[in-house]
Amino acid sequence: MKTTFRLAAMSALLALAIYTPAQAPRADNESGRLYDFGVSTGSIKWKSTELDLGSIEHNKPKTIEFEFVNNGDVTVVITNVQAGCGCTLVNYPKEPIAPGATAKINATYNAATMGAFKKTVTVNTSAEETPRVLTFKGTVI
Questions:
Q1: What is the distance between the alpha carbons of residues 107 and 134, in angstroms, rounded to a whole number?
Q2: pTM, full prediction
């Protein structure tokens, strides 16, 4: 009986995994509109994807801004931003970015460890098929 139930449950999960689209539309929290994450002609131009902060003060958090513009002709949605480690907090726009608009990804590094560092922030958007990796480096003194 248990084996039959397990097989039925695994079959149902497999069917659901096969049927579920890879990227479903997401609703904008305020308006309830749906944004399709399918093929996009959106284009993001980053001001810089690598920043050298030089020397920063020990135990004084440092906020780094990565600015970009939506150069495409469709709205771009940032779907996820992930810091490379727990020493960095990220903040990013949750609202869609209209064509021609600029926005920023903020990363706040805690600077608790002395010495040289190099950190990453990975950004997923509806405009780029592969995640964009942003980097910043410096030395905590």
A1: 10
A2: 0.68
The alpha carbon of residue 73 and the mean position of all alpha carbons in its chain are separated, in whole angstroms, by: 21
DSSP states of 95-122: SPBPTT-EEEEEEEE---S-EEEEEEEE
125 in Cβ contact with 44 (< 8 Å)? yes
User: Who contacts 31 (Cβ-Cβ below 8 Å, separation ≥6)?
Assistant: none
Nearest to 81 by CA among 47, 42, 43, 122: 122
Other CB atoms within 10 A of residue 24 CB: 9
Round the CA-based radius of gyration of the chain to a whole number and report it. Answer: 20
**Per-residue pLDDT for the chain (141 aa), expressed as one digit of tens each?**
555 444 444 444 444 443 333 444 444 444 444 444 333 345 899 999 999 999 999 999 999 999 999 999 999 999 999 999 999 999 999 999 999 999 999 999 999 999 999 999 999 999 888 999 999 999 999
Give the residue from 114, 105, 53, 60 showing the smallest Cα distance to 81.
Answer: 105
What is the CA angle 131-45-71, rounded to 5?
A: 115
